Every structure is written in C-alpha cells, then in structure tokens.
Amino acid sequence: MMLKKWEDLPADMQTEEVRPYYDLLAKKKVSLFFKRLFDIAVSLVLMILLSPVFLILAIAIKMDSKGPVFYRQVRITQYGKPFRIHKFRSMVTGADKGSQVTVGGDSRITRVGKVVRNCRLDEIAQLLDVLRGTMTFVGVRPEVPKYVEHYTAEMKATFLLPAGVTNLTSIYYAGEAALLSAAADTDKVYIQEVLPQKMVYNLEGIKKFSFWGDIKLMFMTFFAVCGKKYEDSNVSKEGESAANVR
Length: 246
Prior knowledge:
Blueprint: H1 19-26, H2 29-49, H3 51-64, E1 70-71, E2 74-76, E3 82-84, E4 87-88, H4 111-118, H5 127-132, E5 135-138, H6 145-148, E6 163-166, H7 168-172, H8 176-181, H9 186-207, H10 211-225
Parallel strand pairs: 5-6
Antiparallel strand pairs: 1-4, 2-3
Helix pairs in contact: 3-4
C-alpha cells in the first residue's frame, strides 16, 4: 500500500488540516507495505475457507426475495475515489432510494437480511473489495457521496488510506442506532450528529495507525461480534474539532 506524494494528492486534500495526518503516515511506509500484503494474503485465504458460506448465503438470499445476491452501492475510498462496494443484500431491492442509513426495525430489511445483519454476514462480501485494493481490513468505514459532501477539511484526512471493513468506530461507537431510531429526519441527524461523533474515532485511528495495531483491532472486532463489550478508555477528545460540520 503506497502513499502518494503530497503534491499528487487531490487538491481538496492538500490542506493544513490534512497535513499532520499525512506526515504521520509518511513515516510508516513499512507498516503500509505489510498492511497491503496482509490484506491480499488473508482476504484470499478467507474467501477460500468461506466459499461454502458464500454459496449458502447466495441461495438463501435468492430464495427469500427478488433481486441480486450482492448489494452494490457507490461509496468513497482512498483519495476520494468512488467505488461500488460488495455486501450481501439484506434489504428489498430499491431500498436505497430513500434514506441511506438504516435504523432498528427498518421495514426494508428482509427475513434473511435480519439474520445476515445480526451476524454481520453481509460484510464478508467485502473480502472481494479488500482483495481488489478498494478496501482494507482496518480503516474508516466508506460513506456514500451525499454524506462525504458534508466532510470538513480535517475529515478528508480519512481518505489518505483505503476505506475499511472495521475500525475504532465499529468497536467503540454505540450511539448511532439510538440517535437514528428516534430521529424524524435520519439523514439530517446522521450528518449533524452521528457523522461528527464517528469522525472523532476515525481521525484518532489515522493518528495511531500501525500494522500491529490493525491486527489487534481485527481480533477486537471478532470478539465484539461474539458479544464482548468494549469501553473506550484511550481515544482522546482532541479530535472533536471534527465534530463541527461546515
């Protein structure tokens, strides 16, 4: 995984807000190299081992409701580039014509989709994206373009690395469901409240990036899926400057 030269970054990323994050990552070229090697090797092995699960999910999804097996939504990854993410479809076809955030008890979720979401099985399709290089195992969760439009200059530092399957937000941030479930306008609440709060963790993850830190976070994610609860005791609130959406 290579980091572009500063002058080769998109113009909207060559800012004083992004520079400190860039300088930190520029000192970790070896870790970035091993991060990409790890992504390729592990995603390939997991895809082989999980091929029976892929097949079972594909059959169950097709039998449960009309539509494709995969949900391919446009998201934003490294350097602000759009890509089409792979997720096992858990909602009815055309569900994203409304709000692009999902709340508890969402009527758009299919019967099989409820199980898939509860077990986070929809996410394993992203092994395809990790292998392709449009995503990485540990990194900021990819947003849709309509939400990226509301990023502050500092938030764009998250585009220095590819979008990720899991990160600090996945482990520690638990306020999203409650805020969105109680919201009359989910998009507004997501943009003004949820996104800035998540960015505190996202930006902290960029600051503290290390190859071994990624490995630790992957294990934490596995245990979190299995039911273990983690309390945030390390993430500083210095990043709360990102909470002011412009």
